[in-house]
Amino acid sequence: MMAPGTEFGEGDRDYRLTSPAKSSKKPPPETSESIRVRGLVIVSFWAVVIFLGLPVWLWTTSIHRARLPLQEMLDWADGKACKPTFPLQIAIEAPFLQDAEARHLMRMTQHALDDLNEFSAHHLRLRLAKSLSSPSGRNASIPESQDLEIGQVFQSYEDLDVRDDSALTVRLRAQDSIQAARSELQSHSTILDVAYAPNQTPSVSSSSSALATFIANRLQELFAEEQAIIAYILGQSAAGIQSTLHSPYVSPATAPGSREVRSRPNRLINPEMAARLASRMTRSLKYAPTYHITMSLFTPSASPSSWQIESALAEYLTPLLDSISAVSNFTVDTQVQFHATFSPSVHAPEHDADHGVWTLQEEDLSGFINAAEWPLSPSIGAGPTLNFVLYVPDQTTSPLVVKGTQASSWLIPHWGGVVILNPQDASTTSVGSTLSKEAIRPALLTFSHQLLSFLGAPQTLPSLPLQLQTLTRIRAASLLLSASSTMGSLARLTVALPSIAIPETVSTAVDATLSHLRYTCNALKEGKFTEALENARIAEAEAERGFFEKSMVGQVYFPDEHKVAVYLPLLGPVGVPLIMSALKELKRMWASRKAQRT
Known about the structure:
Elements: H1 10-18, H2 32-61, H3 70-77, E1 86-93, H4 99-116, E2 122-128, H5 150-159, E3 168-174, E4 182-185, E5 191-196, H6 210-222, H7 224-239, H8 259-263, H9 271-283, E6 290-298, E7 306-307, H10 309-316, H11 318-323, E8 329-337, E9 350-352, E10 357-360, E11 385-391, E12 400-402, E13 409-412, E14 416-420, H12 423-426, E15 434-435, H13 437-455, H14 464-496, H15 504-525, H16 529-547, H17 550-556, H18 560-597
């Protein structure tokens, strides 16, 4: 340090002013060892990312996709794998004809049927059957009374011992007292009695027969509604409602909703049949393996206080439910509600002095059920609920009927049915304040018909067993096409979402569905409709189970934007330093090599 008071010269002052402005020293050059270590550090980081991080990330985030037969699934959905056919066997019983005459009549009737049939997927095949009155002593006589209970209907049907593979038996009987052929279909069996005059018997050499034409027209009339329903189902399922005319099952002339059907009558679907089909599709319930039935007794007073519903159900309804258990299962519960008042939207009953009755307005029927106060909530159990309400009006407003039609029962689509039991009608069979089994009988028979209507059974057939057979074929067709459509939807979903997981349970369900679909299709072609329905039910259940797999449903609504939002905050802070250091090291290496070349 300079001593205090020391004076500087001019040169000394200049030196002092310029000394702080000297340029900063450059860092010492890196040694080759430090450059090598830095490069190894960068390479080691990238090696950890590439050889450890990426495999672990791929392994932990990989999506297992079980292999599915996509093309076969699409073939089923497009109707290429199976063309459902419904060959119905019709047995001809002609005990009063010679064998040659019977065979000739059968051939002429078959030709007439083929000419009448416009729907090739549903056809009737005739064959000769042995007489039900065989030497073994079997009696095929039909009971005279047509007013049979539900249980007696099925008991009579079983006693007839009709072969399972026959949809209908035509029983020919010659009668001298008639001039023209006539027929009668028994309500409790699948036997069509045809009476004809002896002179109508065709000879072996004849080329035409009025009797054969009559039988063919009668058979075509009986199965016309079934043909129309199946054509409607196949047409809509094959190509959708918007493209029904392009269905491979139905020709444009007979497709429901086509211009020709709307403009002119058609043997398969005429305007009346089309209206009935539209009403049926609106009223019918969607298929479910199990339905719950709630039987309710409602009264605006405290009487009747009870009803013999258990014994009535056992006699009048349970036989019907057992007979259609192959289609769906049913659970039943009952309840009684006192002081049940009308809904506020329903007008009070009006007295009709001319007929001596009280009437309800027809427009009030849809709001008749007082949902706010009547305990008609759906059952907790599985499957949809059907409500059947037996309403007993008060003595002061009875007999109660619907104005105009004088009806005492009606349907509420997709909900259930209502029957009004007037006290005057039940007084003769009731004991005190208890409704007897006989008093409930008419209502339960009405509920039985309403139930069949909800299930989609045809309404034009007078034979209950024949209705149930038709219902079996209709349900088999609808379930076959529903399961096929589900397979197509699953295949398209798999292709459209490659990032969705497909567990092995889905593959197992798909294999089971396709297997049972093949069994169903083959059983239909062979005329084994009960077996076809069983396999179709399994196929539908497996298809639904595979399509609504929980692990798949959760990923359908997980778009790629969500993945970016998850990964970006994690990869940004880690990836940017790694990339920048790698680029800087590459730039240094390039400059060093360039300097060495110069």
